[in-house]
User: Fold this.
Amino acid sequence: MASLSEPRQQRPSDEELLRKPYVREAVLWEPVEVKGKKGYVRCDLCARRCIIAPGKYGVCGVRKNINGKLYTLVYGLLTAMNIDPIEKKPLFHFEPGSSVLSISTVGCNFFCQFCQNWEISQSRLERGLYGRYTPPEEVVAKALEFGADGIAYTYNEPTIFMEYMLDVAKLAKEKGLFNVMVTNGYATPEAIRLIGPYMDGVTVDFKASGNREFYRKFMFVPDPDPIYDAILEMKRQGWFIEITDLIVPKYGDREEDLRRLARWIIDNLGPETPFHLLRFHPDYRMTNVPPTPVETLEKLAKIAMEEGLKHVYIGNVWGHPLENTYCPQCGYLVIERRGFQILAWRLTRDNRCPKCGYKLNIRGRYHGGSGTITPLLL
Assistant:
């Protein structure tokens, strides 16, 4: 992940902030009274629906109540910009072989103790500004300059930079680029509807198969249930949906949780929804937990397939047979991968199995990308 970050700047006053190009009035908020006192606001962007006192920040650390109005402090304040293969998101069935320009800011509405991108996701602006201002037009121009097929909003939780994502996504669509996001799924239905017309695909990241106690203990999220409502709204908006599930050994690898999540996906999204079981790697504040045993991932993958999911993948284990796509009807190996690279593409032009004619759940055409990650340093 190539950094765009400049050294952390001293925190400016509210008056100075309001003159900065990266400070904009937020979307989806309203004034509220608390115990008869005015000046409070409620943010309706994520399922936390923070009530924010004057001069204070929301849980995400990047939205502030200034004089009774809610502002985003990260409009275009980018921390990273990279050209990635779309398979890195991971999106295996959406525009395969394409490349995306990936962007991020600081902040997150989760506090995952194992976050791989904690340097930016767990950064809070109370400690000073962090990032480099990049107008939406520059992002789209860079995507076109480097031959990207779309733009990905990723690395930290994109919901929390909704205002910027919305403007970039609109410009991207005008220029013929697609938009995808990688999200924890904790957005409100209102937020999904706001970005809905401009988003094409999404990866929703579950942890520990959505186990409630895991979310509370290791992510400080009171209840994962709003994620399911958000996914249903994404479906109504027509987005292409893939699901990931980070399997954490000992704390988040229960078979019953995996079965419950698999059944929900089948019942609500369909059995051909791509489902990625991701190997945990120790990081941030959970370096004492070892990587997920491959045998655990294989056991859970078998359970997911027994429940009826037709496209089950194992991620973060390069060279594993379950990086590949197999025809659900005849079992023929139709897409061979290693990591983020497509080694062989054996589908017909309309994404059918050449052996039995079964049409796979793949949106878009094969772009023939190499899968090589190219950092874009500005």
User: Anything to note?
Assistant: The chain has a mean pLDDT of 93. The longest helix spans residues 255-268. The radius of gyration is 21 Å. The chain has two domains: 14-72, 77-375.
